[in-house]
Amino acid sequence: AWLISQAKMHLYMQAQKAISQISLEFLNSRPTTLYISEDNSSIRFQIPNVDADGNLKRIPAGDPFGDLSWGDGETFGNYISYRLNGSDLIRERLDSNFNVIATRIIARGVNRFFVSGTSIIQIQLTLQITHYLSIRLPTPITYTVSTLVNRRV
User: Fold this and answer.
1) 130: closest CA among 2, 4, 1?
2) What is the DSSP string of 35-57?
3) Which pTM was predicted?
4) CB 95 within 8 A of CB 78
């Protein structure tokens, strides 16, 4: 019983962390750069770039009233993408031609990643585990989390 409750908590926390990260970045995204794949299994957009101190980068540089520098959080013109790679939900940094610069695993054991919408998007994530702490569970544990995110405009 302890193992199963711990496995459920682990799955719940992993799903909540992943959906929170995607939601937060989407909330701050540039409206004109949103792209959702035709099969609703990936999302791509730009977020404001920040400097090493966490300050928003502006164009022209140093102008406090200049336009925001949009990109992958670091580089102007780049993008952020979330998609499934096997059973891993990954976050990719893409250059301006959509080539992958860096990849990070956001959640493991993902069966489904679904996203739809425009100014308000729905994100749904389903995770499943069969083992926890290297111990096979009597039955797989599945957890689905879904949220609506209304972009700040």
Assistant:
1) 4
2) EE-TTS-EEEE-EE-B-TTSPBP
3) 0.90
4) yes
